[in-house]
Amino acid sequence: MSVASADTLPRSRRLSIDWVNAAFRIGLLLLSLLFAFLIGAVVLLLLGANPLVAYSTMFTGVFGSVYGVTQSLVKATPLLLVGLGICIAFRASVINIGAEGQLILGALMATWFSLQFRTWPSWLLIPTTIILGFLAGAAWGFIPGILKARLEVNEILTTVMMNAIALQLMNLLLSGPLIDPAGITAGTYLAQSERLPEAVWLPRLVPQTLLHSGAIIAVLLAIAVYIFLWRTTIGYRIRAVGLNPDASRYAGIKVPFYQALSLTLAGGFAGLAGVVEVIGVQHRLLEGITSGYGFSGIVTALFGGLHPLGVIPASWLFGSLLVGADKMQRAVQVPSALVDMLSGLIVLFVIGSQWIANRWSKRRMAAAAGAKR
Amino acid sequence: AQPAAPAAGGAAGKPLRVAVVMPSATTDMAFSQSMFEALKGVQKELGGEKAMELKYSENMFKVPDAAAALRDYASQGFDIVIGHGSQYGSSIQEIAKDFPKTTFAWGTDVNTFGLPNVYAYTAAAEEGGYVNGVLAGKLSKAKKIGVTGPVEVGDAKTYIDGFVQGVESVDKNIKVSKTWTGSFSDVALMTEAAKTHIASGADTLTGSSQSVVGSIGAAKDKGNVLWFGTQADQASLGQNFVVASQVYDWNGILKEMIENRKKGKLGGEKFVLQLKNGGLKISYNPGYKLPDDVKKAGDAAIEGIKSGSIKVNP
Amino acid sequence: MPSTPPSTIQRRITSVEMCDIVKRFPGVLANDRVCFDVRAGEVHALLGENGAGKSTLMRQLYGMYQPDAGEILIDGQRVEFHSPADAIRSGIGMIHQHFMLVPTLTVAENIALGLPSSRGPVLDLDKVSARVQELSAAYRLKVESDAYVWQLSVGEQQRVEILKALYRGASFIILDEPTAVLTPQEVDDLFATLKHMVSEGHGLVFISHKLNEVMAISDRVTVLRDGCMAGTIPGREATRDILVSMMVGREVKPLAPQPLQAGAARLKIEGLRAQGDRGTEALRGVDIEVHAGEIVGLAGVSGNGQRELAQCLAGLRKVTTGTITIDGKDLTHTELKAHIEAGLAYVPEERMRDGAIRDFSVEENVFLHDHAAPAYTHAGIFLDFRKMAAHATDLVKQFSVKTPSLDTPIKNLSGGNIQKLILARELSRKPKILIAAQPTRGVDIGASEYIHQRLLEQRATGTAILLISEDLDEIRSLSDRIAVIYEGHIIGIVQRGEATVEEIGLMMAGVSATHG
Amino acid sequence: MSEIFSVTVLVGILASAIRLATPYLYAAIGESFAQTSGVVNLGVEGIMLVGAFAGFYVALFTGNLWLGLLAAVIAGILMGLLMSFISVTLRAEQGISGIGLFMFGLGLSSLLFKTTIGTVKTIVGFPPLKIPVLGDIPIPLAWWLLDKTTLGLKTKAVGQNPAAADSLGVSVLRNRYFNVCLGAALAGVAGASLSLSLVNLFQENLTAGMGFIAVALVYFGGWRPLGILAGALLFSTVNAIQLWVQVLGIGIPADIAVMLPYLLTIVALAVTANRARQPAALNKPFERGEN
Ligand SMILES: Nc1ncnc2c1ncn2[C@@H]1O[C@H](COP(=O)(O)OP(=O)(O)OP(=O)(O)O)[C@@H](O)[C@H]1O
Ligand SMILES: Nc1ncnc2c1ncn2[C@@H]1O[C@H](COP(=O)(O)OP(=O)(O)OP(=O)(O)O)[C@@H](O)[C@H]1O
Ligand SMILES: [Mg+2]
Ligand SMILES: [Mg+2]
After folding, report:
1. What's the start-to-end Cα distance of chain B, in Å?
2. Is C153 a domain residue?
3. Whose CA is nearest to atom 25 of ligand 1?
4. Is the pLDDT of residue B54 over 80?
5. A191 contacts on B by Cβ (under 8 Å)
């Protein structure tokens, strides 16, 4: 270890990319994907489908058309939003399994509010709906947060339970107060709300696709979360609390407060995911609105290295994977369960490969240390 | 997207190409399975794969994925694209505008959005519910009937509402109690709900959704409890205690759509499965010996509904 | 010495040799062709500054790391240890710098951990306890085998560590800074035990930063410097100056504190009472005054309320009765924040747990308290990295903290440098009152001297310093007055130079002093 | 309202509660082993599904329930090996590995079900109370294993301070493999308790979220077998009560009744203030020299 010379302490916040390392990591990532796909190929063969056709349609399905690309962005948007919240929570060392429920709350609020104030103009209705949806999700995150802060109730337990409660709340509202009146008139009693007023619909970015401006909002928020976590005092405290609650306490940081805050913010972002699903994609509240994004968002956040900017490509990759897999299912007509299985394998192999990459780069650094002397 | 290569030409030229997108699995013993089997039946009738190409996407409970699938099938040049889920309405409405030459069908709902290439279909589940209710009212000795359902919406609600009306038409003193489990897939809780009804003295059960297989199992365990099914024929799950099932038969409307399309009518109509038009059928389980007078009451209810002399409110 | 106990050695080793050991870590060459050997019946001391590579070398002998090059010979036979299990099987034991105990388990359970049981898969803790009692009698290592480890003082935990190795029949025992946390009395006890072990034929490796201890017990001394060998000398030839120059490569002057110019009382503690973690009363009426420009040393055997007192002062523990006033302001029941604002700075005892965030960079650790101060933020919201970097660079320079960069995670620094940085941080906040708990524990001699120097300089600026330490030498050389704490109250206060080590030692054992 | 206090109802509630608790109990006890050794396995749901399918498939085709149960255990262990390989050997983040395992298990069990059985079929299963429930089951066994055996001691040490365990020659890796696999085997049994005893059939996504509740119950129980038992019984008793409330037509909206078990579990934990500390090394992969 060398003593840094007095006035030029090196600072590596300047971006310096280790290309060999990056190449190795990307190579390993591709290798683990390949491995998962190989297993998938075997299963496809067993099911009597042609893996080459399957995988080539998977690829062209995502990258071969405007629709495929936009569709993967549509899926990436809620994943990114949920993932951002997960980043904040995990940084404070709080585990939020409750994104599903928080997402539902955001969606419920967006639906109720925009129907209630359907006469408002877009410029007023859209921002208010988004903010209120965020707050509703945040409230759902606040409950486990405050229980943890005040009563030390474990957040995994509460967030899992709150998911179930949110689901029942949605059932309750969709079978009564929020049910589509047209469904009652027609005697179908479908579990969906009335169509939302067009004033609240997020503008579409590409005609004839579902891609909506929520995607842009999500990316901007990712940058905002990055700034929040690494450039602001509150972000600093959240990270400090997550890394060492004892030292944070000794430094006068109110640990429970920041844990609760991070859960609340995480809930808010999941709530936003619910909002954009409702006002960007569905234009109404439906059962199944969460599409499991609350769980896949956790995976996305971790793929993105729990870094807000990392979650941007991670969510896009994950979205593409889901779109491509569906496309493949349609092309070769295998049971959709294969898609779940394959995604699970990909998650397992990719996450498993990270340690190998870490160990490799450590070895490389150690070897470099030896060479220096 | 690249259009899939058309299937090898059949005798009658190009085959009819039909695609369906379903919210649950093709093996759910309920909603999705009923449509899938009907489609396969039609395919067989028309002359197999040479005459009709059939593609499906199942477990599409995520609506954006379903929308992607619907659009994909349409852009591949499928003739008829079916969105078999009421949650797909908005997607159909948007996509149908972009593919005016494709026939879209969706349900269960009654709204064609005023588009000339959209069919809507639904099932008057309350009608079969009423008939099942009449039969159950006659058969329940304990005068206690249990109903298990997922969430009080859609045809789970309308079926059960009809069922209650049917029971009441027989005897107002029969107690029908309902439990909702809050989940379409929680079989264990559904089983327990049925067991709770049985423990409270109910000797006759019915219910809706794919998780009622659990309730049927509970009835089977108990031995002397009767079951009434809906959506699909559930006799295979209980040879001697499943009395009757209301069966959704999509065959008729599917064929009508195909015929219409041949004649150049791409949509703009709504279909309702009813007892009257044969879309709903009451399938008596041959393995269960139904007393004649009860069967007569059931048939009378069917006739009454068909003729309009009995009104069932959804 | 007690009547000769049954030997615990299961497999006798006559010599252990490590030849040309090389060990690399990312960015560090921790051991560079180091040779080291120990024979049965000797104490071989290993010396070196923080980060010299002592622990790393010994961990390789214990199978925790594998050398990148070089070999290990036991009785002339080449061995390869893939895990501690292999080393244990060969008769090697190690007492780690950071105790390797499971706090939620009892002493007996900790000792039995990983050993086969006489009853197959079922535990036989009674047998273990019985054997532990035998051993603790034989080696005068008093512990209660049913106590949970979290209930033990550090001294007791240390004894459990030694018992663990003895119980396993270790023939060679590595002691990595065993005395860092012990009181003088406990050190004496430990040395008696060690001498007894040596007489039984154990070989011992002894690592310490305290040169007088090294000189007192070692047969041979090996010094490491920056991962390399600086040499091996016989114990009787070792003098303070020789060792220091081998370690540091320069002279280290003893301290000469300026006479006291104490001002008004800044910190006043009256009748302070507080509960400990285990629900018992830890403080039972503490009275101390610290004046501006004065260092008051708080001596005492660990576990007599020092930690609780420090926490009360820092506002981290609830006070039951009594008062704490800082500059006349009552801060008895206020929170930590008010204490910080009142000008109190705190160097906590557990520096890695309470004083720093391992994964934060050096720079980020500098701003644990002050990241929101107007001077380092834009509008109190956004961190101002330029100003932060300037300040951090300043501190690193001023306190000569050895670090590759400001962005290096602090966990990659040596203990002494971490401690310097924490002290730098606390002092840079221009405190009116500084509470320094064990500021040089585990810190090498060069850094210790540096830290002491800084504390004296701070005193000269008029800061009131409460120095909590179990190192009597440190207390005696720095303090203007020495307060001795025993069972939660101050048993006596003496002026500098008024009491001998023995007298203070007696007070620490609970015997009231006659001095006033 | 008074109906709910009748003997029939109380007996009914008790029987229901015990039945409903069974899968949670097995899964949560299993998870508590994994967690005690320091591994959070969020994939319990996936393991339960694979176990439920394997058990059902074998029982259906051999007609032997015990073979089915054995198959469920083996399937569980295989899933456990996969989880351990990823999260213990490869030291992957445990939360994400668990969710990956869940997706994999969900997909695998559905795929196998579709391609082998294809439609809902039923079997005659174990009578619900015969499957070892309260007497000869996991609670006393788990307690004995954790508190009375060398294995339990190692497990607790590995979960609290793996470096200490490692320094005494205990193989942290092996211990975690063992506990994750033991937990997974029990999750397999939990799945089989559904398909071979409680509902006697297999369907896609049969477990419907039970695995996640089971994980939550481990936190409720503070990693102690008796605490977990209390949690599982509380949850399932409230569930049984809410079913009775609906059956008896006591005017609470069904959706609210269904919420009750979840709500009361949270409230119970908040009120009883069970402050058990989680194993200190929970969710922290172990690497020698890193900790
Ligand atoms: N696991 C590790 N990974 C990376 N670097 C390490 C690791 N362990 C030790 N080091 C580095 O190796 C060098 C030697 O460390 P070691 O702990 O052996 O020093 P030491 O002589 O025991 O110091 P001290 O007196 O502070 O205990 C240091 O620079 C340290 O930062
Ligand atoms: N008390 C026990 N009860 C049941 N099985 C046990 C018990 N102790 C050990 N085993 C068996 O031993 C195997 C290894 O587990 P264990 O954690 O004891 O490792 P080990 O072989 O003793 O290694 P080490 O001592 O290095 O930890 C397990 O698979 C288990 O089947
Ligand atoms: Mg060391
Ligand atoms: Mg062993």
Report:
1. 43
2. no
3. C50
4. yes
5. 86, 151, 153-154
